[in-house]
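User: Run a structure prediction on this.
Assistant: Running it now.
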Amino acid sequence: MDLVQSSNSGVKITKTMQVDSNKGTTKLECKKNAHESETTQENKTTEVTIDVNARFRPLIKVVQERNWMILKYLVDSTPGALTETVSEFGDTIFHIINVSDAPTLLIKKLAFKITAEELQNLRGDLGLSVMFHATILGYTNVVKVFVQRHTEFPNIRNGEGYLPIHEAAEAGYKGIIQYLLSETTVSLDDDKSVKLIKDLLSSGHYSALRQTIWHVLMLLVPDIKNIRDIKLTHMQTLDIVRILCHGNDVMWNSTEALETFWPAFPEAAKLRICETVNEILNAYFYAYTFRYTDNNYDLLHMAILHRQEKIFKFLKERNVSEPTWKAANKGGKTDNLLHLAGKWAASSQVSSAALQMQRELQWFEAVKSYVHPSLQEQQNMDDKTPRKVFIEGHKELVKQGEKWMKGTATSCSVVAALIITGVFTTVFTVPGGNNNDGILNFLHDIAFIVFVISDALALFSSTASVLMFLAILTSRYSEDDFLISLPRKLIIGLITLFFSITSMMVAFGATVYTFLSHSWNWTVIPISLFGCLPVTLFVILQFPLLVEIFLSTYRPSIPITPNK
C-alpha cells in the first residue's frame, strides 16, 4: 500500500507498507525523491520493523508469571486477545494457558467470552484446535469446559479424520476416554474404529473398550440393545465379540477378515484373551495364518514368543496348524518355532529367577514335543541350533536362579541345623530325670510319650531337610536341573523343615504340660498358643512359596505331551 505525502521542503515521501504474515511484523519502506533534479535524483530507503504481537506480550508475561487476576484484566482491555494469534509461534491465548496449568474456572470464563464458532476455529502452531490440544495434554477438566462451551467439539475431526476420542485412546487417558464416550454422538463405525479398539486394548481400558464396541454395534445390529440391558458382566463383552464376528450370519472372505480382525487378533493373543481368539477363529478359521509383514510371525509364533500358554494350548486342542509348523527339516538355515522358544521372554507371573528358568524350560520342552524331531537340530542363519540359542539366551537367568536357590537353601539349612541342635540335646536331658533304678520318672506319662515321639520326628525331619538343602548347594546348576531336580529338592526340604518345626513345638508343648499340668495348669494353654506362633509364621511366609513351586513343578500351566 503506497501513501504519498508532500513536505514543505519540496521533497516527496512515498511510504510503502508490507505485512509479513509469517513473522507477524510490518515493514515500512520510505523513499525520499528529490524532484528538483531528475538527473541527480537520490533514493534513500529506511526500513522499520514493528512487531504486531507486541500488544500481546503483557498477556504472555502474566501467563508465565501465573498471575491470573491480571490476565483477566488484560484480556478485557486488549482487543483480539482471545481470537487472534498472540505469540510468534502461532499460538492463541488458550493454547498457552493450557500448557501453563491455568485454573479450570479461568479457562471456562475465557471460553464463554467468545462464540462457539470462534473457539472452534482457533488453531495453534501445529494446526491443533483447542479441543485436540487439551486432549493430547490429558487435561480432563479443560476438555469438559470446551465441550460445555461447544457440544460439537467431540464430533469434529482433525485433518487426518480422527476424533478427540481417538487421540485420548492413543495416549491412554482413561478419564478423557470415559467422558468422550458419553459425549461423542457421531458414528465410530469407520476405518478408524479398528485402531480405536486396538488403542483401548493396549491402554488396558477394557470398560471403555466394551462401551466403544457397544457404540459401534448398536449401529450395526439393532437388537444389540436387548443384550445390553440383560448382561453387564464379562460375558457381555464376549457376546459383543461373538455378534461382531457372526452377526447377521455374515460370511467373511480373506480380505474382509484381514482388514477387520488382524489388528485386534494379535493384541488379543498377547493379552491372553482366549475367548476373543476363539470367536475370531470360529468366524474365519484361517485367521491364524495372518502374519506380520516385518517378521512373518503368525498367531502361534506370537503365542510362543510372548509365552501365552492359553493360546498355545488352545491351538493344540483345536489341532490348528500350518504345514511349516511341524514340517521336517529340509536343510534350510532359518529360525523355527523351537528357536523362538529358546529366546528369553521375561515374565511377571513367577516370583523368582529359578521359577522363571523352570517356566522357560517347560516352554522349550513343550514346543519341542510339538514340532518335528528333526527341527531340534536345525541351524538358523547364525549356525545355532535351538538348544544353543536357549543356552546362550538364558545364561544370565541361570546365574540369577542359582543365586536365588543357594540363598534360599542356605537360610533354611541354618534353621534346620538349629533345630537339630536343640532336639538332639533334649534327648540327653529328658524332663523329669531318672529314679534310683535309672528308669525315667515320666516313662508312662502320655505327655512324656508325646514329647519323645515328636522330638524324634523333629530330629529326623530336620536332618532330612539339611541333607536336601545341602544337595541344592552342591548341585552343578545346569539348565536342565531347574526343570525338575532343583525344585523337587527344594519342595522336600521345605516340607521336612515345616514338619520339623511343627514337631519341635509339639515337643516343647508336651514338656511344658508335663511340668506345669499339676500346679500351674492355667499356663498350659497360653504357652501352647505361643508355641504355635513359629509354625504360623512359617506357614504365612514360606507356605505360598512352597505351593507355587509345587504347582509349577507338578501342575505346570503348559503341559508337556509326547510328539505324535
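The radius of gyration is 39 Å.
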